[in-house]
Amino acid sequence: MVLVGIFLLFLIPLAVGLGVGLDPRRERYTRTRTSSTIAPKSTTRSSLKPSATPSVKPSAPAPVTTPGSLWQPQVGASWQIMLGQTLIVGKGQTVTPNVDIYDVDLFDTSAETIAALHDLGKHVICYFSAGSYEAWRPDAAKFAKTDLGSGVDGWAGENWVKTGSSTVRAAMTSRIALAASKGCDAIDPDNVDAYNNGNGLGLTTADAVDFVKFLAATAAKYNMSTGLKNAGDIIPSVVSSVAFSVNEQCAEYRECDKYSAFVNAGKPVFHIEYPGDAPNPTAAELTASCTASGAKGFSTVLKNMSLDKWVKYCNGQTA
Ligand SMILES: *[C@@H]1O[C@H](CO)[C@@H](O)[C@H](O)[C@H]1NC(C)=O
Ligand SMILES: *[C@@H]1O[C@H](CO)[C@@H](O)[C@H](O)[C@H]1NC(C)=O
């Protein structure tokens, strides 16, 4: 396994660099939140989880109907994303970096931490995978075998899911209710771009549009806004349904222009680049990430692939 991992670690960037064979998007799945991009997440994740049981079990609030009142983050808002390491902030504590918004894992982050972030005047976006099944999640049993598609390349224990299935949608509705119960201001549903990947289920861009609209409408019932993760091809169809973009590597793949549609609509692009030399990116890497064509107004962060706490901003600030 380790040998295979090491092999892939070198093969994938090489193949991408050469532009041959592999779809470049293969390696840009956001599930880069593990401490290694190749290691099976089941192992890595469980080692990151001290004890998955939160000390307070929040109860899900009833859905609310508050059209027009959803939180709209501003273009250029400062943010941090931490998915591969659990953020813990106690009541009354401060947090570094002192940014406007934290994007954190829905399951791993406690309601106490989210409340402490709110006390500090911050907004919280809660991440979960919407378009893939992850075997190690506490609600994995809710998924039906018949709804699982191909395995997600490079990620053991993860499969694309039939996004139109009522079972899948019920599981996502529960996750959204969990996010509301924990106090999240918005959701960051990942893996909505199955159409870009060998998903084994025939999922198309039309399916992605329908799924994103479903997720956003469901989150809105709980007064939470929704982001579009990557999925640049469907931006024109969903930009009015979501409040922000979370993008990975648009500078590296030279597609920030596509995502600038969000900024033009008055909505932020939370933009992540993964410099090869993290946590010591070169000046050239910083420049390439921060001054990419089309990325004007983006909220850019340089992160390690593990999406741990290390972050570097375009102004040189690091934490
Ligand atoms: C960056 O991530 C790699 C694995 O993805 C890990 O081995 C390394 O310790 C991380 N570096 C820092 C500074 O967090
Ligand atoms: C919904 O969220 C908005 C923005 O955060 C907030 O101003 C409003 O009070 C919330 N509405 C309800 C009913 O909680």
From TrEMBL:
Q: Which residues form the Glycoside-hydrolase family GH114 TIM-barrel domain?
A: 78-310
Segments of this protein annotated with the region Disordered = 29-69
Per the UniProt entry, the Enzyme Commission number(s) are 3.2.1.22
Identify the stretch annotated as signal peptide in this record. 1-17
Q: What class of enzyme is it?
A: hydrolase
State the UniProt keywords alphabetically: Signal
Does the keyword Signal belong to this entry?
A: yes
Keyword Zinc-finger in the entry? The reply is no
Q: What InterPro entries does the annotation carry?
A: Aldolase_TIM (IPR013785), GH (IPR017853), GH114_TIM-barrel (IPR004352)
Query: Which reaction is this enzyme known to catalyze?
Result: Hydrolysis of terminal, non-reducing alpha-D-galactose residues in alpha-D-galactosides, including galactose oligosaccharides, galactomannans and galactolipids
Polar residues: which segments have biased composition? 38-56
Q: Which named protein is this? A: alpha-galactosidase
